Amino acid sequence: MAISEEAGASVTEAQIAVHWREEDYIYPSPRFIGQANAPDPAIRERFSEERFPECYRDYADLLDWDTYWHTTLDTSHPPFWKWFAGGRLNACYNCVDRHLAKRANQAAFIWVPEPEADLVQNVTYQELYRRVNEFAALLQGFAGVKPGDRVTLHMPMVPDLPVAMLACARIGAIHSEVFAGFSGTACGGRMADSGSKVLVTMDSYYRDGKILDHKAKADEAVAAAKEHGMEVEKVLVFRRRSGQYLSQTPMVDGRDFFVDEVIADYRRKVVEPVSMPAEAPLFLMYTSGTTGKPKGAQHSTGGYLSYVAGTSKFYLDIHPEDTYWCFADIGWITGHSYIVYGPLALGTTSVMYEGAPAYPDAGRPWRIAEQLGVGIFHTAPTTIRMLRKLGPDEPAKYDYHFKLMVTVGEPIEPEVWRWYYDVVGKREAVVVDTWWMTETGGFMGATLPALEGMKPGSCGPGALGIYPVLYDEEGKVVEAGTGRAGNICIRNPWPGRMLTIWGQPERFVQTYYSKYCHDKQSTDWHDWPFLCGDGAMQAMDGYYRILGRIDDVINVAGHRLGTKELESAVLTVPEIAEAAAVPVIDETRGRVVEMYISLKPGLSPSPDIENKAKAAIEREIGKVARPKNVWIVPDMPKTRSGKIMRRVIAGISNFADVGDITTLANPEVVEAIRHQVYAEKNARGEAPRPLTEKELEEIKAFGRAE
Ligand code: PRX
Question: Residue 371 burial by CB count (10 A; 0-12/13-18/19+): exposed, middle or buried?
């Protein structure tokens, strides 16, 4: 990740000084503090560095262990730390069975289908127990799944998804849920990588008023897995409306089975939860980074579950009697940690919503909140921006009262934060800005809601027991309050960290530790800071402001997309010679992708090639990644060594300064591209808007990570 030669000067990304106004603190109400799970400042003491790693006993003790552990943190194989070594437990037991004695009839999930006329469904803990057991029995008996096997789920937001996840956990199998919006090809690639022979999917689901044919993707997934040399044995198909098949694709004999038919043989079956070692993998979650292929973040059972239970308790302030709504998709890490595992471990009631945020109108979320008495609301800036744009006055029309609201997934602009606080939260709710990532399992930076003031645009200090540090490119510490940005790392291990990258332990060490490891032989964790992959700066009060990824990842509406993945998708089109993806600042989605392509010699630009490029991205990755514009340019701006200078085209796409281009091999092409792109953007009505200083810095730094 050294700075590439095109940067020209000695200044590095981690050293860029960023200037902005410090926001004032906003404090929680006495009413919130009076009921909070963490009202006592002594909690910071309990999680002080001197008490590390034993402090995390507090989290692990929220769980029921079959065998209590003997070693809190085993550092003998750096950096493959083992938490709660010697302990055994079952994640499904902790999320379901143990709540039956007290709250069998309490809803675990309240499922809200997208069509407003459809009935809301309560899934009680008792019903969840029954459904999980039956599906676990089916997985074992019908699909032959054994402990340690991987099972891929490609499921939309329906209760069958957490049922399938918990069923896997119950029998010690490793689930790998692929976001339903991803394409069949993307799903198949992940199946092959994880070696999973069983695919659990659904015929269809509702999104934005339409019923989508989802089973079609299963056929593509099986074909894609086969191309990678993997034979999928069974495709288990849930049906969105029982008894009806809402997909156009035929069921393949001997391979595809309707779950509602097969399950008849497993009615009322009870499967004993398999007691798993603390470090046994619970699930894989594929995510993007610098290189083309997504990596399977492998999360543990004991450490992960402890960490999400603890952070759900202290940061989301979940009490069992709360009604909590995390408006994210379970297909991402947020949904795994903070819809399924954390809230269920605490025995609360969660709302699960199937569809699009503003369907049929921007009042929908607030109607749901009013009808169901939601007290805790959790969503991403992209959704907040969209709801603000479409219905700025809608929240006031509904009688709901949140005590706490969460923002996650992208930096939130202070002005969007204020609308969230003033209008959505009615100035009654605490806002917790939670910064973290797929790899970390749970929150890394956030304010303790009753104890630490909110500061719009900053996530806050390191979470309990988390000790972040900012390093510059040379590994020198960037001090707080200097106005300089650095690469944010976590100095210490924590229980929620992924165990490794599935099947690629060297890549795990390389990606997260090679840059700042002090001594590769050392078994002292102090020598192994974890590179998070974000640029950040720290104010004098210890609060962090996250600037965004340093590794060529574009965060589109909270979805993490690797530029290399986007580019390799486009390069499957035979006419295309070169491709470069850049982020464009977008009012609602945060960032969107624009793709620059150049063609093979002798070919001329055509709308047909442009469409082929878009279709390739939809096929290889999914609709979420569809670029806003595809620009077919005569040539890419390149360094003398032939590297594409992404920051130059990113500058053009954002109507920003392109910076110094004197080191280019072909500087003349810049003006030609600018002319072409500006003219077409004008014709499409994409007017420039002034960028903030922070946005300008991001554009300037883009593409420097190579
Ligand atoms: O850049 C950070 C941004 O999202 C990235 C992680 O993406 P992913 O692994 O998909 O997980 C998203 C849900 C945790 C981070 O590297 N990010 C996440 N939360 C925040 C954020 N940026 C600023 N503020 C946040 N609260």
Answer: middle
Rounded to an integer, the average pLDDT of 279-307 is 94
Going by C-alpha positions, the residue among 608, 602, 607, 677 that lies closest to residue 636 is 677
334 lines ligand 1 (CB under 6 A): yes
CA distance 597 to 677: 13
Rounded CA-CA distance 307/619 in Å is 36
User: Ligand 1 pocket, 187 CB below 6 A?
Assistant: no
> Is 463 within 8 Å of 437 (Cβ atoms)?
no
Compute the distance between CA of residue 160 and CA of residue 121 in angstroms, rounded to an integer. 12
- In short, whether 534's Cβ falls inside 6 Å of ligand 1 is yes
Which one of 437, 530, 538 would you pick to mutate in the ligand 1 pocket, going by the greatest count of ligand atoms within 8 A of its CB? 437
CA of 435 to the centre of ligand 1 (A): 6
* Interacting residues of 268 by C-beta distance below 8 A, sequence separation 6+: 130, 134
Concatenating the DSSP letter of every residue in 451-471 gives TS-B-TT--BSBPTT--EEEE
Instruction: Identify any residues that bridge with 533 across adjacent strands, giving them in sequence order.
Output: none
Is residue 60 classed as helix, strand or coil in its secondary structure?
A: helix
Bridge partners of 561, per DSSP, are: 554
State yes or no: cis peptide before 53, omega within 30 of 0: yes
**Nearest atom of ligand 1 to the alpha carbon of 459:** 26
Segment among 4-8, 243-247, 427-431, 595-599 with least mean pLDDT: 4-8
Instruction: Name the DSSP letter for residue 255.
Output: T
d(CA 322, CA 36): 12
Both tokens assigned to 227: 């191309």
Q: Are 87 and 277 in contact (CB under 8 A)?
A: yes
Structure tokens given for 110: 């309240």
> Per the structure block, which two tokens stand in for 578?
């070169």
Tokens coding 367: 């109607």
For the cut 60, the answer to whether the pLDDT of residue 299 exceeds it is yes
Q: Give the integer Cα–Cα distance in Å for 244 and 669.
A: 57
Mean pLDDT in residue range 663-667: 89
Contact 665, 640 (CB under 8 A): yes
Please determine, for residue 476, whether its predicted confidence score (pLDDT) is greater than 70. Answer: yes
| Residue 437 CB–ligand 1 contact under 6 Å | yes
Ligand 1 touching residue 287 (CB < 6 A): yes
Cis peptide leading into 381, omega within 30 of 0? no
Burial class (CB in 10 A: 0-12, 13-18, 19+), 209: exposed
Give just the sign of the alpha carbon dihedral 652, 656, 661, 667: positive
Cis bond upstream, residue 28 (ω within 30)? no
Q: Would you list the DSSP string of 98-160?
A: GGHHHHTTSEEEEEE-SSTTSPPEEEEHHHHHHHHHHHHHHHHHTT---TT-EEEEE--SSTH
Atom 23, ligand 1: which residue's CA is nearest?
411
CB contact at 8 A, 469 and 461: no
Given a contact cutoff of 8 angstroms between Cβ atoms, the answer to whether 4 and 643 are in contact is yes
Which residues does 264 contact at the CB level (< 8 Å), separation at least 6?
A: none
Cα-to-centroid distance, 460 and ligand 1 (Å): 14
Per DSSP, the three-state class of 568 is helix
Whether this prediction's pTM lies above 0.85 is answered by: yes
CA of 410 to the centre of ligand 1 (A): 5
Tell me if 438 CB under 6 Å of ligand 1.
yes
* pLDDT confidence of residue 621: 94
